[in-house]
Amino acid sequence: MKHRLISATATLALLAGSALAEDVRVYNWSDYIDEALLTKFTADTGLNLIYDVFDSNELLETKMLAGGSGYDVVVPSGTFLQRQISAGAFQKLDVAKLPNIANMWDVVTERTEQYDPDNAYSINYMWGTTGIGVNVGKVTELLGEDAPITSLDLVFKAENMAKLAECGVHFLDAPTEMIPMALQYLGENPDSHDPEVLAKAEDVFMAIRPHIQKFHSSEYINALANGDDNMGHVTTGDIIHETRDFSLEPLRLYIVVVGALTAEYKVYIQVFFNL
Question: Higher model confidence: residue 1 or residue 89?
Fold first, then answer.
């Protein structure tokens, strides 16, 4: 089994000069921090936290590369971090003021170095996986008991998607996640930068596009809770949250992995998948 690793990195943005000294402006992914912690931060530090959220790297990048965003800390994914560093959007970290940097997991830190050499501008904030979340009851109702739940055939074979369309299928609005998954399905290198290889993903998606309800990176959360969406390519943490907090019919995960971190991580994924 292969899985897709995503990494979000916290970086210091170059200030436009408009923010007041007692303000801290943060731009983060939606649903990434418990709101109670935001209140606690202000209580503990006395700083006024201005906290905004986004749900796609493209939205963040548009603001950062336009200049003058006004944010102190932003959280891009690793693949976008490199380009934003090259554009001069961030300032280097003063690690002398970050004593807890010694507690970072070296395995992930080494991974993020490919985007930020020496991790000079960023600290890994969160890492995880994306995968296929499936409401087993709904899917087997439409495809039968032998539905290929643990295979990407489930979402990339047009005949399957044509039947699944009525139960609601959402995909992430994230090309850096979706294209590698399609390439993995085709047996190509999911990290390829070859234009001819990347172009092959287009045919995969065009064949199933009529059956996809929506490409969106956060709306599927409410759609799952409401029963409007019963399958999709999602971040794995959201599936756990929906099943636990909304007492939904158990959802199953098929985690698409591209390069395992460690042997222990492989074991964790296998156990997680079987829950």
Answer: 89
* pTM of the complete model beyond 0.85: no
Residues 33 and 92: beta-carbon distance below 8 Å = no
> Topology of 129-273 in CATH?
D-Maltodextrin-Binding Protein; domain 2 (3.40.190)
d(CA 173, CA 268): 27
Distance CA 183, CA 198 (A): 7
- Rounded CA-CA distance 270/124 in Å is 24
State residue 230's pLDDT score: 73
Q: How far is CA 242 from CA 156, 167, 230, in A?
A: 24, 17, 11
Right CATH number for 5-128 from 3.40.190.10, 3.30.420.130, 3.90.25.10, 3.20.20.70?
A: 3.40.190.10
Instruction: Name the token pair of 180.
Output: 């590698």
Domain boundaries, the chain: 5-128, 129-273
| Short-list 128, 84, 114, 175, CA closest to 272 | 128
Percent of the chain whose predicted confidence (pLDDT) is above 70: 73
Task: Yes or no: say if 251 and 243 are a contact pair by the CB < 8 Å rule.
Answer: yes
Phi, psi of 28 (to 5 degrees): -135, 165
Q: In CATH terms, are 5-128 and 129-273 the same topology?
A: yes
pLDDT value at position 53? Answer: 92
